[in-house]
Amino acid sequence: xxxxxxxxxxxxxxxxxxxxxxxxxxxxxxxxxxxxxxxxxxxxxxxxxxxxxxxxxxxxxxxxxxxxxxxxxxxxxxxxxxxxxxxxxxxxxxxxxxxxxxxxxx
Length: 106
What we know:
3 helices; alpha+beta; Phosphorylase Kinase, domain 1; disordered C terminus
């Protein structure tokens, strides 16, 4: 199990775990360079050594990054933070993402 809570992964300070799937763990984190909250998706270590899984992870991020809809989060980047493959997303924790997007657009 990958427990990064309280640690720093590249420029991201990990605050808490949000959830986990079959391919990655998602953490609430802070981008220390831009001083913004992100949901940081971190590929599971045993999959990060498999080129096929890394390619799939990157493809998913690129595909999602090219979608624009108020109910879809923004993907900021996909890359490596140390030995971990990561993808930081916008976050709207604690509120409905669609409502959050509409408020910002007004």
